Amino acid sequence: MAGFVGPLSQLDRAVTVLLVSRSDRYDRLPAAVTAARVAFGPDVDVRAVGYVADASPVGEPVRGVPWVLREPVDGIGSAINAGVSSGVGRVLLVVDSTVGVTDQDLQVLAAAGTDRVAQARVWTADGGRRHGARLLRPGALPWTDDGTAGAGSGDPGAPDAAAPVDASVAAAVDRARLADGIRTVPVFAADQPVLAVPGSALVPAPCLPDERMTLTAWSRAVADRTGHAAVVTWAVERSAEAGRTVDGAVVDAFAGWRDRRPDPRGFAVTAGPPLPPWGARPVAPTPRSQSDGDELSWSLKIAAPAGSDGDGWGDVHFAAELAGALERLGQRVRIDRRDAHVLDDDAADDVTLVIRGLDRVPPNPASVNLLWVISHPDDVTDTELRSFDVTFAAGPVWAAAAGVRSGVPVRTLLQATDPAVFHTGARSTSSADADRVVFVGSTRGAARPVVSDAVALGADLRVHGPGWGPLVPAGALGEPSLSRAEVATAYSSARLVLNDHWPDMAAGGFVSNRVFDVLASGGVVVTDAVAGLAEVLDVPTLAVAGSRDELAVLLDPARPWPSAAARAVVAERIAAEHSFDARAGVLLEAARTERARLRR
After folding, report:
1. 138: confidence class by pLDDT, cuts 50, 70, 90
2. Distance CA 399, CA 413 (A)
3. Spacing of C-alpha 188 from chain mean position
């Protein structure tokens, strides 16, 4: 079941108790049914729905439980919707079978939820606390109070540092402290399945793969209808909880809160960079410097895998050269490959820069978040663009269209080169590439048109990179791999260098960094057509071959190209305008500006 249509029937009952249970935990439901009947009388409206989560096995329905459905539904959101579809009383209580509740717990929660969303404080078996969701940064994953007893939370109902971590003792301490006058604390939303909501304010629960976000999104929507803040109150124990699953649907859900205004009391939305890092696991907050010094801590996130499997990826060199440029500007930089996109110390990062290639990386609400789309633009969604503080793209055509489509500015920031590696001094007349047509790159698993066309035209070709043996003549085979310095020598020494683009990159105006590398080396580059290329790079050592016939003209050995002196002028211009140092300056300015804005 995905939801329900239209307003629900309002039953002439004070309370409806909906018990939900993962499909392999039905044995815990009879005790909850008994607690509900003791709390509200033997005729209480109590119901039960099972759900499958984390591929849980399906158990047999337990006798004596008032089942709404005999078969489990998919996820806790659907379980809530199925359970309320026939109507509810004035207050709806939702309790999962993993939460131990007494009749007193249910009575306190029902009283708190007559006109607002109310969640019980939850203590887990390992002493962790789940005391309601805080939206620490608009548009970021809501954060629950994930510490352990003794960590300190700022929640006036939480035990102090001397409190034991045993869940039953911690919950008892909470109940004792609150017994004289049941204290409530405002939160952004409820994120644990032990809550009460006014029946008249119900909306369908979203069906997301993440339990906490399902409950957070649902209870926040209900709270908005009530006009009152959601609260936490009382205290109960939970024996087990669901794992986290943060996929595209979950990101889309919390990205919808990007425009929420800060709560002046700090209970719901806190402006500025929060302490805990994003991610799908509890972590300990990391102390952060509040200085406005020039040195910031950067994390560059790239898609390359760790180890030798990723060492040859282009974004590894790209990130390393950008990191060097940022370090020359006085920054501290760490490069995180695919297996390190989430680290325990992410909260210490001042700036997270996602160099967007194959992987989508969620933003880090503990830092300023910059996105630089350098390849595979067709994989980038509007929601992803909206979730970053500042977005750049290396394709001006795509950037303009994406900005209009997504409603957020997407600034053009072209790819770049490192003049310390690629320069005219790399030329060598004794190089095996001297005065030949050169291509450097892998096969991508198939022949690349610019290379196969050059072979068909009989060009004096030399191809470097893995996998070319079956695809080019033996005399055209170069080295399976080259160092960066050797690549620079090949580019500078060649008569001309061939280049091509993925179709989506060409259509979006994404100019390959190979183009910048060749030009900075004083070489000549012949590339396929790229949208808007003439507007960003109008130099005499760059030519476009839109067909095999056009390529034949450009490959003719008799065709004149600019002199060495003219090439050096182009190289000097590229080094000044399109270096990683120039790009680093733009990124640093954006980070400082956004950091200042978030601190206001």
Report:
1. low
2. 9
3. 21
